[in-house]
Structure to design on (622 residues):
């Protein structure tokens, strides 16, 4: 008998599950073995009802084994392979080649949308076997190249296909059109703040982390949101990585080339951000993979949460080890943090007086540790504009997001061309050793860097981060060599340039 | 009619009903230490344990309501004992026949097939 395969999720990977069925005489009962979770165990009710709705009577003691027996199975996506296994055992259908089936059954035999179809598509591609998914998941799957996939809307339709009555046609490969991204807010809508806008441009071009420090109402949040309008679209490869995470974590999401942008509230828990839970789900930082994770009111986050971000920010992946298992989630994010310079918020303001004591400021500063700040490449002060400045800027011509985005896209294109063969997408992603070897610095730049890093007491990581940012600035300028002016600008964004 | 006689009459009625359906009656009133079976019959290739519930009008509970989890568990237990005893390896199920007597000496039969329906009662 041809084996029937389903999947279960392990992190963002799909694990192949073989569904075996045995039917013996006795009182009707369906037993599911092979470490099923509650959703899988309940699938027997859905499967029974769905099969009965197709007038397929199930009788006797039905034993469903999900192999490998010792890894936990989760989710309703095993409904379809279990139903097929029983139908095949009853002789209703007979597969002629192995295939992967994913889907949740409704009681009347329709197929419902499930999580995990994109990892399933990757698995089907690797095993070189066809994949059957619910109709509602068809679009996600059609974005994965080189998969023989079929969209099924009901169990009856699938049976007809297997019996050869009415054949389904394989899903056509779709390519997302690079739609016009509406910048909201547009950079042109933000008055002044040219320094912060320049930092946003660099951050977007090289995927560098950014912190905005400024008094209340100075426009930090608005600036952070504006980055959505200037980020370059995801490449095909990046899109698939992002889809894989979203498909494991959520039922409804929109597949777009627009990089993800996730805002997290300070009350979030470590598990919500880093991933975990009993079923080992990806957290916000993984959902924001290849996009932006925005932590507004950075100082209000719990200290242990911020410290937990250290390693993921550096490595671009997060290892979640729990009793349920050990999984690796991707999390190559652009972190944007925003905070006030002091508890009252007016430190350094031109009009308001800061009323914080030195002790209060000290305590406030201590909420964010050095190691975290060291991982943020661009430190930018966002001063509050005076009313008369706000009004005087009214008629000034400012670059719109569209213009900046074009520049950013070109800079990113240069990076992809340069690093693509090594498997990197942007400057921020380069490992430390790699950057020192591959950036041929001129003697001038080298001596300038030595001099400045000595004066600014830069750490080893600091130097390589400065180099990465310099490379991005050079890419934005269209220069193939990193020059002194590029390094100088990168150094200006280092830690210490902002009072925090 | 007292309730014992009513029950006996109900079982007779059920037997003739099943007979008319073409079922082969195998056994009646089989007793086991923890439960009894009213009728055991064959529906084609499937062995069926039939529980008969007779009610005269005026009872508060309908026949199907009067078989709760405890009674069902007893039936599953007794059924398994019977299957063991007669060495039956095929499929079997438990049916409920609800017979309701009306005032004018007429009666109606309701047949509920496979009352356990995949649920575990043991």
């Amino acid at each position: 008998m041809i084996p029937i395969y389903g999947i279960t999720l392990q992190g963002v990977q799909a694990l192949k599950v073989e569904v075996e069925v045995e039917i013996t005489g006795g009182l009707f009962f369906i037993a599911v073995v092979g470490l099923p979770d509650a959703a899988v165990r309940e699938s027997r009710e859905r499967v029974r009802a769905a099969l009965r709705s197709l007038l397929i009577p199930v009788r006797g003691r039905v034993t469903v084994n999900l192999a490998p027996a010792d890894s936990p199975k989760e989710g309703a996506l095993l409904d379809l392979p279990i139903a097929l296994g029983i139908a095949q055992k009853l002789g209703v259908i007979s597969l002629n080649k192995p295939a992967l089936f994913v889907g949740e059954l409704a009681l009347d035999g329709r197929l419902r949308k499930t999580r995990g179809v994109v990892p399933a598509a990757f698995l089907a591609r690797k095993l070189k076997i066809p994949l059957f998914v619910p109709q509602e998941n068809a679009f996600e799957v059609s974005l994965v190249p080189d998969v023989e996939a079929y969209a099924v809307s009901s169990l009856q339709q699938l049976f007809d296909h297997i019996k050869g009555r009415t054949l389904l046609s394989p899903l056509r490969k779709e390519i997302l059109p690079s739609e016009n991204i509406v910048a909201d807010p547009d950079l042109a809508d933000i008055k002044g703040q040219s320094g912060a806008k320049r930092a946003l441009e660099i951050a977007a071009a090289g995927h560098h982390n950014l912190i905005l420090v400024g008094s209340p109402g100075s426009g930090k949040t608005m600036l952070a949101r504006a980055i959505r309008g200037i980020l370059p679209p995801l490449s095909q490869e990046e899109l698939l990585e992002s889809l894989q995470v979203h498909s494991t974590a959520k039922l409804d999401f929109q597949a777009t080339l627009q990089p993800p942008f996730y805002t997290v509230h300070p009350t979030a828990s470590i598990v919500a951000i880093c991933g975990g839970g009993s079923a080992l789900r990806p957290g916000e930082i993984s959902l924001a993979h290849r996009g932006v994770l925005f932590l507004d009111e950075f100082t209000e986050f719990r200290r242990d949460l911020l410290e937990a971000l250290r390693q993921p920010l550096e490595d671009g992946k997060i290892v979640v080890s729990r009793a349920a298992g050990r999984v690796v989630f991707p999390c190559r994010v652009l972190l944007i943090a925003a905070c006030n310079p002091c508890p009252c918020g007016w430190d350094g303001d031109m009009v308001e007086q800061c009323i914080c004591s030195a002790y209060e400021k000290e305590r406030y500063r201590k909420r964010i540790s050095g190691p975290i700040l060291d991982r943020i490449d661009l430190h930018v002060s966002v001063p509050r504009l005076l009313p008369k400045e706000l009004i005087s800027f009214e008629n000034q011509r400012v670059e719109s997001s569209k213009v900046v985005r074009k520049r950013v896209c070109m800079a990113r294109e240069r990076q992809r061309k340069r690093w693509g063969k090594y498997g990197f997408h942007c400057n921020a992603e380069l490992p430390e050793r790699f950057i020192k070897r591959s950036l041929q610095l001129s003697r001038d730049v080298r001596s300038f860097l030595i001099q400045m890093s000595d004066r600014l007491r830069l750490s080893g990581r600091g130097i390589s981060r400065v180099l990465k940012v310099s490379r991005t600035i050079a890419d934005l300028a269209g220069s193939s060599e990193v020059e002194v002016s590029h390094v100088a600008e990168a150094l200006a964004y280092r830690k210490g340039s902002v009072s925090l | 009619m007292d309730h014992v006689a009513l029950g006996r009459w109900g079982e007779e009625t059920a037997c003739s009903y099943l007979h008319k359906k073409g079922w082969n009656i195998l056994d009646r009133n089989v007793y086991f230490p923890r439960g009894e079976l009213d009728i055991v019959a064959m529906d084609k290739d499937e062995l069926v344990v039939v529980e008969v519930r007779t009610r005269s009008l005026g009872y508060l509970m309908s026949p199907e309501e009067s078989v709760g989890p405890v009674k069902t568990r007893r039936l599953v237990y007794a059924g398994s004992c019977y299957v063991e005893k007669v060495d039956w390896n095929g499929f079997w199920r438990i049916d409920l026949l609800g017979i309701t007597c009306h005032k004018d000496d007429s009666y109606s039969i309701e047949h509920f097939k496979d009352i356990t329906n995949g649920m575990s009662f043991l």
The radius of gyration of chain A is 27 Å. Chain A has a mean pLDDT of 91.
